[in-house]
Design brief:
Strand 1 (13-20) and strand 2 (23-31) form a beta hairpin. The protein has helices spanning 2-7, 36-44, 48-57, 111-120, 142-152, 164-171, 186-198, 207-221; strands spanning 13-20, 23-31, 74-81, 100-108, 131-136, 157-159, 178-181, 203-204. By secondary structure, the protein is of the alpha/beta class. It starts with a helix and ends in a 16-residue tail after the last helix.
Length: 237
């Protein structure tokens, strides 16, 4: 309440803490607002905020239909995770709680372009040039991980989570990217994931994204280009 009053916040807001020793640090506090609605409005050209307010004020009833046309460009949002904020900290994982501290949105003429621009705008993402650490301890993701390994092996050295040697490479910052599948396998790869976070190695924690990024890398190697363009503000009706 003291933080909310100091910031003049009325209503819900997000707040994140880091506990260190006997101290509690606030790393983020901001007003709770939808990021998906303005993103979708920008992508489709339909002001969903305006429509939702009108719908609410008219008793959640609409007196007319509206058509959302397929966007002329691809739009992608990428999450910015905070695994590296505390060295030796938590286990990098995905889940229903809020692990990301922000998002980056980008658009492109091709899906691969939009995906790469959004992902590369987050830290510490970068396109691998020498090798990739790709593995899973979850049986349901073996097939997808194998496909990623096979595709990446066409131009990269693909590593497996074999323990000491790979972790030594991580400590030296010699691994270009880590891709894994499955949720919580902390008893098997805590050290691997944690080292990747602490050495600013890009981490991909789900094979669906890993496969899409792999295809985007292939698209780039095949002559595809991502273009940094000025985002022209357009009036949304």
């Amino acid at each position: 309440m003291r933080i909310a009053k100091a910031l003049g916040i009325v209503g819900p807001f997000n707040i994140q803490f880091i506990a260190g020793g006997d101290k509690l640090y606030v790393i983020e506090a901001n007003v709770r607002a939808s990021r998906s609605m303005p993103f979708t409005s920008k992508a489709t050209g339909v002001n969903l905020m305006n429509l939702s307010v009108k719908a609410a004020l008219s008793g959640l009833g609409m007196d007319r239909e509206f058509i959302v046309l397929r966007p002329r460009r691809w739009w992608v949002k990428a999450s910015q995770f905070a695994w590296s904020r505390v060295r030796g900290g938590s286990y990098p994982r995905l889940g229903p709680v809020m692990y990301s501290t922000g998002e980056v949105a980008s658009s492109g003429k091709a899906f691969e372009e939009a995906l790469l621009k959004a992902w590369l705008s987050t830290t510490p993402s970068r396109i691998p040039s020498k090798n990739a650490l790709v593995y899973t301890y979850d049986e349901q993701y073996v097939k997808a991980i194998d496909e990623i390994r096979n595709r990446l092996s066409r131009w990269l050295t693909v590593l497996d989570d074999t323990g000491g040697e790979v972790r030594a490479m991580l400590k030296q910052g010699s691994v270009d990217i880590l891709m894994t599948g499955g949720g919580d396998t902390m008893n098997k790869d805590y050290a691997t994931r944690r080292l990747a976070a602490d050495t600013a190695t890009p981490i991909i924690l789900h094979p669906s994204l890993g496969l899409e990024l792999t295809r985007a890398f292939e698209w780039l190697r095949g002559g595809g280009k991502y273009v940094i363009e000025e985002l022209l503000e357009t009036e949304i009706s």
